[in-house]
Design a protein that fits this description.
Strand 1 (98-103) and strand 2 (109-113) form a beta hairpin. The protein has a domain at 26-92. It has helices spanning 2-22, 26-42, 44-60, 65-71, 75-89, and strands at residues 98-103, 109-113. A two-stranded antiparallel ribbon has the order 1-2. The protein contains 5 helices and 2 strands; from the N terminus they run H-H-H-H-H-E-E. It has 126 residues and is mainly alpha-helical.
């Protein structure tokens, strides 16, 4: 039951955070993404050390070599993660973009505007 409660708490917390992010401007979001990228690189040694502990537990638990390979973080993987975050920060923010607008016969304007989606949760197992 502990796992279910943990996942539920993560979902509730993520939902609360998504409400705050809705109010956040593009510059702030991009700054946060860039900072995350920098922190990944700056703290890569700490991340790799913690990952080694995770890998030890995975081996003790009998996970397959393929699964352990997917769990392994090294300088190259962390650099790729940081690069991905920086790339996202460089993209145009779609929030607020009007993708279609038309006028109804009664004069009412109807349109499509991109909005934050919110939270999507999924469990990924290899």
């Amino acid at each position: 039951m502990y796992l279910v409660e943990t996942i539920e708490k993560m979902a509730v917390d993520a939902r609360a955070a998504s409400r705050q992010l809705r109010k956040t401007g593009s510059e702030q979001k991009n700054d946060a993404l860039k900072r995350m990228a920098r922190m990944l690189v700056e703290r890569r040694e700490e991340i790799i050390a913690e990952n080694q502990k995770d890998l030890s537990h995975a081996k003790e638990a009998g996970l397959s070599a393929a699964m352990i390979d997917r769990l392994t973080l090294d300088d190259k993987v962390i650099a790729s993660m940081a690069e991905g975050l920086a790339e996202v920060a460089g993209l145009k923010d779609p929030v607020g973009e009007v993708t279609g607008m038309w006028k109804r016969p009664n004069g009412l304007l109807v349109g499509r505007v991109r909005i934050p989606l919110g939270v999507i949760g999924f469990i990924f197992e290899s």
